Amino acid sequence: MATADRPRTSVSAWRPPVPGIAEVFHAHFTDHAYPAHTHDTWDLMILDGGTVDFALDRRRHGATGTTAVLLLPPGVPHDGRTVTPSGFRKRNLYLDDTVLPERLAGRAVEAPVLDDGPLRRRIHQLHAALAHPGDGLEAESRLAFIRERLHTHLAALRPRAPGREAGRLAAELRELLDSRIRTGISLREAASTLHAHPTHLIRCFTRAYGLPPHTYLTGRRIGRARRLLLDGHRPAEVATTVGFHDQSHLTRHFTRHVGTTPARYLRPPAGFDGGFGG
Prior knowledge:
There is one protein chain. The chain contains ten helices and nine strands. The N and C termini lie far apart (38 Å). The longest helix is centred in the middle third of the chain and has 21 residues, at 136-156. Strands 1, 2, 3, 4, 5, 6, 7, 8 and 9 form a nine-stranded antiparallel sheet that branches. By secondary structure, the protein is α+β, with helices and mostly antiparallel strands.
């Protein structure tokens, strides 16, 4: 096949029946930039080649090759982009708070790139187990050792200094947005509810969380859309359920955030049937 005909993006995503793993995501990106967004899960990532540049809480970091482990905490804005023409290949595990509690998120902010060869090998082995039906006990066992090692890393890091999440208005607006993910809220209504001037409200939120309120809300909607797609819901249904105007509205934002369309998102590896029964 000619180089010009090769797909620029390859994505596989699925939810394995392993407690603690909300999503498995494999991708090859040659020209993609994630906008700033947050997750409500931990993002544990390894590279299989290439270089990725990303910002976490407005500080830039980079990772190259097949040795680093990236751990991005929930609730903290981050982006990501390709650096070289060949892009990067990555494998992500999105882990819920039964694996790592959210209270440890502040410890991961300052050091999201871990230089730990044994941990990287264990994560690779877990991905291999997740791709094969019947290996459920192995996958759970490998996750248990990964969890233990991640806790050791986080225990050695200093927590982020208090006050970054401060800002009464920012915290209250975030709670308001989280409660209105589907219906949304106008800036005028939010300002009236919180008794604040609209521009002051936006500045407080952006200072505290590193992205403006509308970007935060879009990211939360995308996160919810991913879960619904993994549950088997159709994109058109997902769009209105999470608060987008229609499927094309969802597709536009989803592609910017995830690097592929909702229709092409759910694609487990060959041979994976979604179960671990022997």
